[in-house]
Amino acid sequence: MNFYLLLGDFECLKAAVQNGANSVYFGGSLFNARAAATNFDFEELEKVINYCALRNVKTHLALNILVKDTEFKDAVLMAKKAIELGIDALIIQDIGLAQFLRKLFPDIPIHASTQMTIHNLEGVQELEKLGYSRAVLSRELSLPEIEFIAQNSNIEIETFIHGALCISYSGQCLFSSMVGGRSGNRGKCAQPCRLPYELIEEQSNGKKITEHKIDKGYLISPKDLCSLEYIPSLIKAGVKSFKIEGRLKSPEYVATVTRIYRKYIDMALSGAEYIIDENDVHELKQIFNRGGFSAGHLNSHANRDLVCKEKPNNMGIYIGNVAYYNKINGHIRILLNEQLDIGDTINFENENTRYTVSELIKDNNNIVSGKER
Hints:
Layout: E1 2-7, H1 10-18, E2 23-27, H2 42-54, E3 58-63, H3 72-85, E4 89-92, H4 95-104, E5 110-112, H5 121-130, E6 134-136, H6 143-151, E7 156-163, H7 175-180, E8 197-204, E9 209-217, E10 224-226, H8 231-237, E11 241-244, H9 251-270, H10 278-287, E12 293-294, E13 320-325, E14 332-336, E15 345-346, E16 355-356, E17 359-361, E18 367-369
Parallel strand pairs: 1-2, 1-11, 2-3, 3-4, 4-5, 5-6, 6-7, 7-11, 10-12
Antiparallel strand pairs: 7-10, 8-9, 13-14, 15-16, 17-18
Helix pairs in contact: 1-9, 2-3, 6-8, 9-10
């Protein structure tokens, strides 16, 4: 069972390796679906590949965008250099680029990116004919659909198990180009799904059209995927590799998510009773969540809890209620449900501002400052 992270810098990569990932994938300075992330140049690629090889961790280079004719030679050169440095596999969206590289480097495994929208058995079988060794399935598939594909195909099947979801079909979002003038299929997603919208209903009486506001907020911003409860079923279904989205995230996030999923993958593979510790779910929420988690589309039933319309980014965890606010000195009294420490970042409901805790006054009137701590 492969288990690996999408990463954006060397500190994140080390966090993944040291917490149990047995494969990592990352982008070079060009031709990957996270242009805004910190990506690796050739010198850094060599350091990363060597670091992972010494620890028996496989490395995969993401060349997972559509490549223009004028860029084709540069994309081939990047793949060639990565192969020379010892990369273990390439993740590619562009079929033309993949076919050219297969002829040029027949021994390098090529994986079909989720950007290819591979969502059925016929798609996987076609990839097999083209020489792909693995298909990263679309995130819109249910567990039964994934199982059917895995049980009836001859190449490896990979699925995402944790991280951000897109409101559009994998690899098929044109919303970013329309709203932000930047293409998600070119690695420059403007994330329009994370913006606030209003839902308007038009009503007509035959003569006049009136508008009625039904709802407002972050109406198409999905919660992050959390698949802890599905790990045993996905393994049983025949999935050979699990993927966690980790670029544009901190090393602390990567370390926490990797460590927890490593624990449950090992538990599922061991045959021991599979019990999820709620403290682990709490820790995942604490490191990053958008209004809780979602099972995405893994359940066969329609997901009525896919979106969090209140906030599009990290919501953190609920720590307590404000009991009193002193406008004169700015002190706030909070009835805590969770521990609060100097240096923690907090925000309040219906506010976008974040505050860093620099001083705590305990019930006995002892003042704890950042310096004292």
